[in-house]
Structures are given as C-alpha cells and as structure tokens.
Amino acid sequence: MEGTELNAYYDEAAVERWAGEADKRPGRTAFQRDRARVLHSAALRRLAGKTQVVTPGTRSQAWDPSPRTRLTHSLECAQVGRELGAALGCDPDLVETACLSHDLGHPPFGHNGEQALNDVAQSCGGFEGNAQSLRLLTRIEPKRFVQDEESGDLVSVGLNLTRAALDAATKYPWPRGAHPADPASPKFGVYEDDRPVFDWIRKGAPATRTCFEAQVMDWADDVAYSVHDVEDGLHAGHIDPNCLHAEPERREIFAVAIGRYVPADTDPAELAAALDRLLDQEWWPHGYDGTAVAQARLKDATSQLIGRFCLAAEGATRERWGSGRLTRYAAELVVPRATRHECAVLKAVADRYVMQRAEQERLRADQRIVVAELAEALAARAPEGLDPQFRALFDAAGDDRARERVIVDQIASLTDASARSLHDRLTARRP
C-alpha cells in the first residue's frame, strides 16, 4: 500500500490522535485515514459555494467558464502539494490532507468575509481563517465524540486527525498577536479557547516553526492560487496580457506586490526582472480570445508555471538538505528568491486586474454589510435563530464571550449563497 513504507519515517507521536480509536480497516495508514476524513467532510463540500476570486454563480460579459471556488482551489492545491511532497520524501497522504484542510475555516465571501467577521469578533478574540480551520478540524466538524470525564457529557473532537496532520495544516503556529516577526500581523493559527488541542499538536515542536509538510502545503497554496487566479482572470476577460508590457501598468503591478506579496524593501527592478523572465517564455500566453486553441495554450502555460515553481523549490531544497526523505522538523523548504518574486508578480497581476475592479469593491462593501447585519440578527435571535448544531453549543456556552464565538462559528460555516439567503430571511430583505 502506498503509504505503508513512508509511515516508517514518522514516529508514534506523529500518528497519535487526541482520542484513541481502533482502525475500521486494517492495512490503511494513519495518514490515509486522515485524508479520507477530510475528503468526506461537510466542511470541504461547503467550499464549493465559497468565493476564491470570482463569486460563484456570476458570469462576466466575456467568455467565462465556471470560475474556481475554494473547493476547486483546495483540490488543485492538494494535487500540487501531494506531488511536491512525495518528491521530497514526505508522506503524500499527509501533505494532501494538509492541502485539503488549509481553507476549511474560511467564511463566505473570501478574504473580504474574513475581514468583516474579524470586525464582528473583536470582543471574543477576533477571527482568522486559519485559526478557524483548526477549530473546525478539532471541534466543529461532527465526526468523533468522547465522554468528558468530569461532566459525563459527550464532547466533539472534530475529525480526530493525527498530530502530524493537524500540524501540517497549521500555517501560523502561534496565537493572536504572537507573530514571531510582526506582532501587529493579523495572521494567527489558534484561538485562546482552542489552546489545549493546539498545545497537544505542537508538543515537542520548535516554537513558531512550521513543520516541513506545512511548508510544502503553504508553497503549494501560493503556486496554485497565483497561477490559477491569473488563468481565471484571463478567461473572464479581466486581464489583458498586453498590459504586462506597458507603463504605467507595470509600475502599478509592482506597487501592489510590494508590502503585500513581497517585503516592503523589495527593489521594483527585481519584480520587473521576474515579470520579464515569465514574458520571455515561449509558452507565455501573450493573447487570449477564448477559442479552443487559446484555451489549450493557456492550460499549457498554467502547467508550465506550476512545474517551474515546484521544480525550483524541489531543486533548491535538495541542494540544501540532500537526497534523503525530508519530514517534520528535519528540514526547511527552500524557495529561491527569484521564484518567489515570479510567484508574487502573478499574485499582483490578479490583485490589480481582478480584485481591484470597481464593481468588485461595490460587491465587497455589500458583503461586509451582510456579515455585520447577520451577526447582529443572529445575536438578537439566539439560540432560536441558529442551526441545531450551533444552538446546542450556544446553550452550553459558559459566558457571553463563548456565546459570541458560537455565532461567529455559525456565520463562518455558511456559503456565499446561504449567507445571503439567511440574511434576507432574518432582516426581511427581499432579493
């Protein structure tokens, strides 16, 4: 079986679960079980209705196939991460599990919804999609329950994944305000009331350091969304490839990248060189008209870019760490500076021409109103207005802070469409 030999490179602590349980089917590895649990979860299915860049169900006037959602992005990230991880000696099921899990906690309306929900959740510790993913994997997604020794009540342990799988899915292994390089950063990976399981996951791990599999997952995420967001932007007619040769468009792209996708002290000339390296490739899509030939050429370009970014990381990592199996905390993923710049330029292109469109800002403003009004309406009606799962959690909450967190959990679980539908119902707004 594929993962059996590879699991020999992971110790007993890595395959331990918060709640011990017997395997239903002997012969499977612990990480194959983890992957199956995430793949069959309701949380993963819900990503089909959550925004990646273009809102699901919308269509531009240009020829536009179905745009990517959070689900299709997660599946593509998983494919990239699985192959890169396997090439570097990781258990491929473990890396794939991390990639499938990395966006589970994201709320409706993409990063815009995440920011709006963070505003709502200030008094209960804020909201962060990665911290929400951990909460979902270890508490909210109903799969395994254990009996509390003191109260005798049944308590959810979520999907009850292995320590290594939960660690591999953790991009930011620190609580709010504890970013090792930037305490003001909004990025964090655990809420205070989830610290017990987080501390269990991180037992023996170097403080604030991500494991090797999480680094592979993180790079696979960057590669997938940088390449595919540009592909979707071309399909939708939002990106004109000719603009990438012209001023002032190029300066605007680099301005978007600096401070957001690369450090603030990055020389724009480095980004210009990175963009020119991509434009000089014979497979680069210098035009796009939606024909079958153009679609095929664009798809080849996305494949070339993914291969370019992954092979660069694989080669640099092997050069630094050798040819053996690289797992857990035995190595660090090495991505060449020039490769990171190429990836960052693609992110900035999608940001500049897709996310910064005027109609997108109007849509985002409306989405923020929906999230804020939903939180207010649910708080006024709780627990009756909550779904049965969250109603029970609200009733069991010990204080106002915990009850507010349950309302945030309810909103985060919604898709774009269900958030609007629930908002319309609770506020009597008619579509």
From TrEMBL:
Q: Does the keyword Hydrolase belong to this entry? A: yes
Q: What are the GO MF terms of this UniProt record? A: dGTPase activity
Q: Which UniProt keywords apply?
A: Hydrolase
Q: Which GO terms describe its biological process?
A: dGTP catabolic process
NCBIfam families listed in its UniProt record: dGTP_triPase (TIGR01353), PRK03007.1 (NF002829)
What's this protein's family per the entry? Belongs to the dGTPase family. Type 2 subfamily.
The name this protein carries in UniProt is: Deoxyguanosinetriphosphate triphosphohydrolase-like protein
Q: Which organism is it from?
A: Streptomyces jeddahensis
Originating gene: dgt
